[in-house]
Input
Amino acid sequence: MTELVAQQRTAKILDQRAHDLLLGHSFAHQQIGFIHTLEIEYGEPMKQRTLLQVEVAAQHKRQQSSTAHHKYRAQASEVLHKAIETAIFKQLSDMDAVILNTLGIEDGIATILDLLAVKSATVGRLEPLVNDLSWLGRELVTLVNLPYYRKQRSKNTSVKVDSPALALRYIGLDNLQLVIPTFAVRHWMPHSTEPFSLLKRRLRDSAMANAIAAQKIAQINNVNDIHAFTLGMLLDVGRIALVRLYLKTFEQVWQRKVQIARQEQRKDLHTALLELKPDPLFLTTLLNNQSLAISAKVIEKMKFKYLPFQGVMQQLVNGVDKGDTILPLTEVMLKARCYSQYLNLKEHQLIESDETTAWFSYFKFTKTELKTLETSNFTNLAIQID
Output
């Protein structure tokens, strides 16, 4: 195996591991064969009394019953998830409906993001567009009224801002280029990701780290850093769509199956179905295989005029055709995605130093890039409001 092939294999494994981690720390550990230390017996095993013959028979019967039930439950889960998979792919065939009903992306937000990318952008041109999106206006007003930013403004005035128009002027165009993509992606997040309790927060953290890493790497390489930040934020929109689709579809299909089992008085099936929950293995596979392609379709449907994202997304999904040159923004996004995943894996001690070295070598990180990223803040936007 050549070094490049080994690095490519490591990159693929770590990408999958990062997806597993989104769904839970213990699940990610299970997927790499981690054995929890609490499950290991130390020292001599405790002496146990000899079971009576009647107890042995009862235990054997319970085990047989338990094994049969587990098999039955696994079969029920397989049938359920085949129905869910069919329903999800049927919904994904109508991307306009996914954008409108699942993600809730309005046309106005794409227009605003596009406008922020051009030099002729003004607060006056943004104002009517923001007024049409009540949630965005509320978010901007809330932001400028946060104690931290009110303190920054107190040199001039500490008056409470109560209109989106005034908030836009206080925040300023440079800050809006970072703030509005961030608020948009947060607005599209699922309201709840139970039973994966930390998934929503990890999706938010992932998008933020993607965007900031992309911005930093772009600045070093003379690539438009606002384009990089915006696409870094939008890169996870496919994940968000799939999480929302899966959790909603699971609930709908599961309820229908439970109702049918009850009506047909199939007690064993009804009991097995009641024990089933959303499956992390199904969801991580769905995210790993489909999320980038869904992001590309959503971004294509947003019909940006000035943001040059379509060619980049095609390269990210399909790779670079032989004879073609990798686009500078594509290279930035590959590195940013790698680094944001690395941060999460490192925080949970799920990556070894040799794996990190191979991963960074595969994406050709420079020393300058790594040095800059090591000293960057990936949790907050570095903005000043005067």
User: Anything to note?
Assistant: Confidence is low (pLDDT under 50) at residues 35-51. The longest helix spans residues 53-92. The chain is about 70% helix and 0% strand. The two ends are 57 Å apart (CA to CA).
